[in-house]
Every structure is written in structure tokens, then in C-alpha cells.
Amino acid sequence: MEIINLFSSEKGFQECVERYDGDDLISRLPDDILLVILSFLPLKEAGRTSVLSSRWRNLWSYTSHLNFDDYSSMEKIIEDPEFRGVEREKYVKWVDSVLQSHRGSTVKELRICFSLVKSAGKSITKWLEFAFERHIEKLELNLSDGECVHHPHEVYAFPRELCSNISSDHPYKSSRLFG
């Protein structure tokens, strides 16, 4: 209740500023708490926190929730299909780069949401291998853009051997696959 009262007026806000004297209270939190907070941010935003301070520089790379939903690029593709190839290539490079930089030992959730076809198959398979090696719990693989229908010869084929390698003690809970 005090927080609401502090910010309900300019005087309350000023009192709050004076009380904390510019201290960076969030950076005082333990890394585990900061990682939970970062897991609620879109991945691009979590990555942007690396400029806050040296402590934050690599913190995002330990997050266990990897959400690669690039809605703004998908809008470009839907509005102008000529961007499709360029945007797909940028997306694949982005995911590759993030996964190469990732330092966490586990991944609780991986979301790949972008219009991708068979030509990106090697990268998609690498991403899935990465996830299963890190004991993924929840996987969402949505390779459609909701607008165009891919020709059958363009559709990515999920490698069955990935599923056969999942042991009974694996924490895998759910998956959603769209193509």
C-alpha cells in the first residue's frame, strides 16, 4: 500500500527518489532472481539488458526460457512476400547466434515461431538437439506464418531419432508442433 501512496503524487515520487538516492536496487538481487525476471522478457529485450552493467553483460545467456517469436519480422513477410528469404535468413542467424552464446545447462522452454521451410532444416535440427541436450521441458515449434501454405517438398521433417533419444527420466513435459 505504501508504494501506491508514494507514487500517487509528485511529492510522493520525489520522496521515493530521495529515500533510495539513485540506488540500483534490482541489481542487488541474486542472479537466480534476475534470471527469473529475464525469463519473462522477450529474448531480444533480455539480451538488451547486457548494456546495463558488467554484471548484466552475460546474465541473459543463462536464461532457461528461450522464446524466439519474432512477430515484427513475420508481419513484414505477410505484408510483402519479397522479404521472406531475407527475413528467414536473419531469423536463422539470430537463433544460431543466441544458442551459441547460451551458457545455461538446462532449458525449460524453447519457442521457435517463424515461417521456416526445409532449407533451414539443418539449423532447426541443431536447435532441437541443443534443446534436448539441455533437458527441455516444453517445446513449441511453429514454422508457419499462418498465411501461406508450404508445398509438401518445402516442409521441415521432424527427425524421429530426436524423440527416440529421450530417456524415461527426462523432464520433457509437452510439445506443440506446427508446420
Automatic annotation (TrEMBL):
Q: What is this protein called?
A: F-box domain-containing protein
Which lineage ranks, top first, belong to the organism behind this chain? Answer: Eukaryota, Viridiplantae, Streptophyta, Embryophyta, Tracheophyta
One Pfam family it belongs to? F-box
Task: Indicate the segments forming the F-box domain, all copies.
Answer: 23-71
